[in-house]
Specification:
This protein has 361 residues and is an alpha+beta fold. Among the domains are: 7-48 and 140-231, Probable tRNA modification gtpase trme, domain 1 (Gyrase A, domain 2), CATH 3.30.1360; 278-355, Elongation Factor Tu (Ef-tu), domain 3, CATH 2.40.30.110. It has helices at 7-12, 32-41, 61-68, 116-127, 152-159, 205-214, 222-231, 266-275, and strands at 16-20, 23-28, 44-47, 52-57, 80-87, 93-103, 106-111, 134-137, 142-148, 173-178, 181-186, 195-201, 218-219, 279-286, 297-299, 305-315, 320-328, 337-342, 345-352. The relative contact order is 0.15.
Length: 361
Amino acid sequence: MKKTSLNEIHRAAGATMVPFAGWDMPVSYAGTVSEVEAVRTNAGIFDVSHMGEVRVTGPGAFAFLQSITTNDLARIGPKQAQYSLLLNPNGGVIDDIIIYELADDDFMVVVNAGCKDKDWDWIRAHASGSGSFLLNDESDHTALIAVQGPKAIDIVNDLSDSSRVSSLVRFELREDVVGGIRCLVARTGYTGEDGCELFCAWDDAPDLWEKLTAAGVTPAGLGARDVLRLEAAYPLYGHELLDDVSPLESGAGWAVKTKKRDFIGKSAVVDKKTAGVDRKLVGLRMVERAIPREGYPVLSAGGTVIGQVTSGTYSPTVKAGIALARVDVAHSTIGAELIVDIRGRQQKATVVELPFYRNGV
């Protein structure tokens, strides 16, 4: 099993470790609920070094990435980032990614840990004969630390040499020195809070982590990260995003720009959009005290199965059971009363506006 360069620090801090996508990762430290609360009220720190980083450089890099991703890279420029998707020819989602434009003709693509190998193979296969650019998998020597929460930016800014981290806007990035460590600082994250993600050399991550935690940032694990992203209604590959489901039915259709030139999967998405979707991703809030989980059937008020929970949990912020679910369009109206079958018990739920939590960023 793979280990990040922070593994010993996690274990020394008493973290509960679990296998995740082939990595030994911390699922919690003091407990998921307290870690969620720390991120929502102060600042939390996550080890996400298991994510993959693919560098695409050269004169043909922009055109190549435009051809394999759904969003429009022409909308950003150097020192900016963009959320996007990789689709297969049938319009299903291979992975969701973030592209960082480091400079002209120089991009870094961050992919999910569980998809890294297949994404790398897929990108290389489509790069063959496509133009004058170079691909390099930089995952093994790149560490990634996320600092998230309302006080995250101020803490990182105070540790930076430039004191200009606070001037970054969402999805903007800069090179800086934080706590004595050279980093790429991006104002991005996956929690629904303000904050940033810090890319640094693999061996520098332990020192950077210690500097940040000493400044008052609370260590948080994968459990809290999943609750936070669900409260923010961010789709997750393998749950909402699937190889055989259109992004139009996964809550990620906004990241598909069909007006740009051809890209892999475009025709399938256009056809789906023209025909109209059969299903829609909705938010459910449980009426009674109950916790919905992935895979639980969703029923109409009349008892007919009309969908399935894709992600579900108890939300410490909302203080209720919440879920994302893919349901028949006819039952997707805000305020609709539905039922979640929780191990044979029919529990009432209401379709609510997404996200479940919004902090204004």
